[in-house]
Design brief:
404 residues, alpha/beta, nine-stranded mixed beta sheet, two-stranded antiparallel ribbon, 12 helices, 13% strand, globular, binds zinc ion
Length: 404
């Protein structure tokens, strides 16, 4: 917990200059609260982002990096989405918060298994309005001071186990995907019947002999899902602004697992499959940049914007078993993964910009971890960091921070 004594300087300044955000109706209050938007990515990989940034193919991310602090985000060992997102929510180890992976106690991980109080609850209690959409491991949704729309692990028709498949809003079963419930009709009317998570990967059987057609068809579906998701984010940010908004994309990772642009020397290389859509994976990040462009329309100079990812993704290269998708990816020929025992092989991404945050600063090594996200967000709102949280407030990203 080093650095705690420095906590209040930068944040008080930030709180003073930040105007009252337009709250979500009932949640608005005369108190001064910062507006914070977190864009989460499932598996953003710096090895792809950096070359695309150099080529000028991610202009929006480039702008945020220039105006903020960026670097690697240290993640947990053998990272996967439910595990790391639950660390984002609680700043507690997976064994302590109860969400240790996709499967917990023999069934798909769900919010009923969460044993540590999550960020959305702490913020809501602290008078901060909360909006969340498509965040992994938030199904069934929980009441918040605002809205919550679930993401990865949502169960539904054709996706009964909720594992890496994609029910539509109208097809959700076995729990509630939207809070408050009356928001469902409004979303169906204004956004349409969108897919809640990214598409299920095709099996080896489906691909055999039809690789080009099946691959391109699947990629078209992924584009459609992202298009729907962008429309959803844009709608929510415009029509339901909240003090704290957490939006997550999931298709980058899904594409990488089986369409990573690997070379003949890589494990699992098949000339039939891996020559079809070599740009499919970098294209996900080009598309992510356009989603970020939509989010940026809702960001002004008084808004804090965080872009975070739970892990990176790398081609198979070690003998360890691929656990994360082993049980539920069916027979999809997986060629890249993120659940390496050594998490520092697949760091996540951390980018932050906002009032009082350093401009154009790069973090070297691993000063910031996935445990630090919740404490830092709580502190932006002047809320106390509960004792069980393992992370710290990342004070060094602020201009006013002085090392003693
Ligand atoms: Zn993930
Ligand atoms: Zn994955």
């Amino acid at each position: 917990m080093h650095g705690r004594k420095h906590l209040f300087f930068p944040f008080l300044l930030a709180l003073c200059v930040t105007p009252v955000p337009l709250g979500a109706g009932e949640a608005s209050s005369p108190q001064t609260r910062p507006r914070v938007i977190v864009l989460g990515v499932n598996g953003a990989e710096w090895d792809f982002l950096r070359p695309l940034l150099l080529r000028g193919e991610m202009p929006n991310l480039s702008r945020v990096i220039e105006q903020g602090v960026s670097g690697k985000l240290q993640t947990v060992s053998a990272p996967n989405c439910p595990k790391v997102y639950s660390v984002f929510f609680t700043s507690t180890p997976p064994e302590q918060n109860g969400i240790t992976g996709f499967i917990v106690g023999g069934t798909t991980a769900h919010t009923g298994r969460l044993r540590a109080e999550p960020l959305w609850s702490l913020l809501s209690k602290g008078g901060v309005s909360v909006g969340m959409a498509n965040v992994p491991a938030t199904f069934p949704v929980m009441p918040v001071e605002g809205y919550m729309i679930s993401g990865m692990l949502t169960r539904g028709r054709g996706c009964e186990d909720g594992l890496l498949c994609s029910p539509k809003l109208s097809e959700v079963q076995g729990g509630t995907a939207v809070f408050p419930p009356e928001l469902v009709a409004e979303l169906l009317e204004n956004v349409g019947d969108f897919y809640i998570d990214c598409a299920r990967m095709p099996t080896a059987e489906a691909l055999a002999g039809r690789e080009p057609a099946v691959t391109l068809e699947w990629l078209a579906r992924v584009s459609k899902i992202r298009e729907q998701q962008t429309k959803l984010f844009d709608y929510l940010l415009a029509q339901h602004p909240t003090d704290f908004t957490f939006l997550v994309q999931s298709c980058e990772d899904r594409v990488g697992h089986w369409l990573y642009p690997i070379q003949p020397h890589n494990v699992g290389y098949s000339p039939k499959q891996h020559t079809i859509a070599v740009d499919a994976f970098p294209n996900q990040y080009r598309a992510l940049d356009r989603v970020l462009g939509t989010v940026l329309k809702h960001v002004d100079q008084n808004t804090f914007l965080l872009i975070i990812s739970d892990h990176g993704i790398k081609p198979l290269r070690e003998k360890e078993e691929h656990q994360a998708h082993k049980d539920h990816a069916g027979t999809t020929p997986i060629i890249a993964k993120h659940d390496f025992e050594d998490a520092d092989d697949v760091p996540g991404v951390f980018v932050a910009m906002g009032p009082g945050i350093k401009k154009g600063a790069r973090l070297m090594g691993f000063p910031i971890s996935v445990y630090d996200i919740a404490p830092t967000l709580l502190h932006l709102y002047g809320l106390p960091v509960p004792d069980q949280m393992r992370g710290r407030v990342v004070v060094e990203i602020f201009e006013d921070y002085r090392k003693d």
